[in-house]
Design brief:
By secondary structure, this protein is of the alpha/beta class. The chain has a single domain, classed as L-arginine/glycine Amidinotransferase, Chain A, CATH 3.75.10. The strands form 5 sheets. Strands 2-1-15 form a 3-stranded mixed β-sheet, covered by helices on one side. It has a 3-stranded mixed β-sheet with strand order 3-4-5, with helices on one face. A hairpin with a 2-residue loop joins strand 12 and strand 13. It is globular, with a radius of gyration of 17 Å. It binds citrulline. The site of citrulline (CIR) has 19 residues, from loops.
Length: 253
């Protein structure tokens, strides 16, 4: 069960954030509205939401997930791989200190984005991407193993972050798209295959009794519901324009 969630409001500079997509510039008003609905969905799941103010110096800082890896007993402050995002951790660490006594850090030359970290029960998967390098992954693996978690490093082929293509929704079930549909590291889990045309919907989040799903992906939503989960749909079009999904917008612990 998650008790807490941290989110950060998109600032006016959000429209200048990083992207690899060709979906156009986000509409700020719509992004703010979608963010409000996202917070309402989280509250419906029964978590306490800590809402951080926008920081205009960091256009991508609404994607708080990338700044940390959180477990019940400790936090790991990441070292984001994009130079324009690296300073986001400076504001996040004091926030985490309110919740955690034990805080580790990923140190340069290691880089690591939280979006590359997937937890499945007591096993963490660490993606090597354009943002998370081998040194960062190695540091996190050591921290996790010292805390009695299992950790596996996964090389990404195409996906932006690990959780862009694979996510855990509980009860032994993963959502798998693209290169993760048949991937040795994940073949021991039950899978809901996300079809190519719905690939974006591989990024759903399980929060307590619900799976929050992005609006507009009916096949995946139905497959999740048929597997016995209750869903809440949230529109994320303005976050998708900057490569962001549901998981990126919060830290859940
Ligand atoms: C970036 O390029 O860093 C942001 N525009 C998107 C970050 C998405 N975060 C995530 O998948 N955890």
């Amino acid at each position: 069960m998650f008790k807490n969630v941290i989110v950060k409001t998109p600032g006016k500079t959000y429209v200048n954030g990083l992207t690899t997509s060709d979906l156009g510039t986000p509409i700020l008003e719509k992004a703010l509205e979608q963010h409000t609905f996202y917070i309402a969905a989280l509250k419906q799941c029964g978590v306490e939401v800590t809402e951080l103010q926008a920081n205009e110096n960091y256009p991508d800082s609404t994607f708080v997930e990338d700044t940390a890896v959180l477990t019940p007993g400790f936090a790991v402050v990441s070292n984001p791989g994009a130079t324009t995002r690296n300073g986001e951790i400076i504001e996040m660490e004091p926030v985490l200190k309110k919740f955690y006594d034990k805080i580790y850090r990923i140190e340069a030359p290691g880089t690591l984005d939280g979006g590359d970290i997937l937890q499945i029960e007591d096993h963490f998967y660490i993606g090597i991407s354009a943002r998370t390098n081998h040194e960062g992954a190695k540091q996190l693996k050591q921290i996790l193993e010292s805390e009695n978690y299992k950790a596996t490093i996964v090389e990404l082929e195409k996906f932006f972050h690990l959780k862009t293509g694979v996510n855990y929704i509980g009860e032994g079930i993963i959502l798998a798209a693209g290169e993760f549909v048949d991937h040795a590291d994940f073949n021991s889990y039950k899978k809901i295959i996300v079809p190519t045309e719905e690939e974006y919907a591989a990024n759903c989040i399980r929060v307590n009794d619900y799976v929050i799903v992005p609006a507009g992906f009916p096949k995946t939503k139905k497959n999740i519901e048929d597997a016995g989960f209750k869903t809440i749909e949230v529109d994320t079009t303005e976050f998708r324009k900057l490569d962001g999904g549901l998981s990126c917008l919060s830290l859940r612990f």
